[in-house]
Design a protein that fits this description.
The structure is a homodimer.
Chain A lengths: L14 H13 L1 E3 H8 L3 H13 L3 E8 L2 E8 L1 H18 L2
Antiparallel strand pairs in A: 1-3, 2-3
The structure holds a DNA duplex (30 and 30 nucleotides).
DNA sequence: TTAAAGTACTTTGTATTTCAAAGTAAATAG
DNA sequence: CTATTTACTTTGAAATACAAAGTACTTTAA
């Protein structure tokens, strides 16, 4: 049952989602445009990765209008922050065996 | 062109391949059974991930018989070791921003 | 001695995931 | 106005992940 990769969270086991989380844990929030630019990904690709994290309740999404333009903000949840911490620890443990 | 996830190597961006590499960089070699047990994966799954790393020339494969039983040993290549080092540094950089 | 179970993989096919292109809708620029 | 840009969402094909089944033996044990 227990293996050396057991505590690596599948939800974070992709560079784009790892990037999203590492941005959100230090920034409190980021909007679609900011994530897109920092990560250098296409729109559709980013949307599907944020959706996956949202589904797990690791981030939440707040839609509003800034002036008359739509704006989507992403926040990490408590659950997400905790899970990410465990994930990072698991990676570090794996790499420093 | 350059983003915060740019130096993360797609070939290592999966927990199983990350696990395989982290085993191989410290052990010089591991056989199929050892990898399977350490990682807790199914046979077919392990085979496809080792094949992916082999294709990139990050590991090489040596088939022989131990007694009368087939045995497959995996070694990390120089190229693999270098690429993995860069990958690990990229992850660490990302996580400690 | 032969049947059953185990070992060490490989092959196959489906399910899931990833991704970019195209689509939508409103804003701003010319 | 019309054209382009911004800010996303939807769609569907392609790639990937995965387990189950298959192959080719070897070992156990009745």
């Amino acid at each position: 049952m227990s293996s050396i990769i057991n505590n690596i969270n599948k939800a974070f086991d992709h560079r784009i989602r790892l990037g999203i989380m590492s941005i959100l844990v230090v920034n409190e929030y980021a909007d679609f445009k900011m994530l897109k630019e920092l990560l250098g990904v296409t729109d559709g690709n980013l949307a599907s990765h944020t959706k996956a994290l949202e589904k797990e309740e690791y981030i939440n999404v707040e839609k509003s209008f800034i002036g008359r333009k739509p704006n989507t903000k992403y926040y990490v949840t408590k659950k997400g922050r905790d899970a990410f911490k465990k994930h990072v620890e698991a990676i570090e443990k794996l790499l420093n065996r």
